[in-house]
Design goal:
Layout lengths: L5 E2 L2 E2 L7 H16 L3 H5 L2 E10 L14 E6 H11 L12 E15 L2 E14 L2 E16 L2 E11 L15
Amino acid sequence: MAEMTVANGEVEASTLLSRAEYEDFLFWEAQLLDEWRLDEWLALFTEDATYDVPTAGSPDDVSSSEKLFYIADDYFRLRHRVTRLNKKAAHAEWPRSQVSRIVSNVRILGSDQAGVQLRSTFVTHRSKGDVIDMYCGHHLHTLCQIDGQLRIRAKRSMLDMAHLRPQGRVSIIL
């Protein structure tokens, strides 16, 4: 993987990876979450990263400074979320849910000084006890390369659902 270089505020096209390489990265991220390897998942993020989950049905460009979000984490809060979810005291997720993610329709939207913007579609199944929940939507990622490794600078999980019923909450990482 080539280092990302920026010229005139744009990532040079010669340093962009192929869609398949970005797709493999998103598949790896999904596998880490499915296997509840949250510390390894957190290591994919840059220290200036954000992770957002706006309320169901929100537009892609919604701002957490103007609307309520289910999750609006900077890296510090995301690290605490991972620490909490790894403890037995996280009652909503202990014992841990069984989760299975499908990621598809990966598209490169563009690039700028922050990195490469991707859009992908997801379906996440969560099974706990006798209840199976399904979350569907699309992810908006901004990825950058640091020391030759892809990292997540921003992840926004958009729920393409009218509401969270019957789930009622998001206790897993989408």
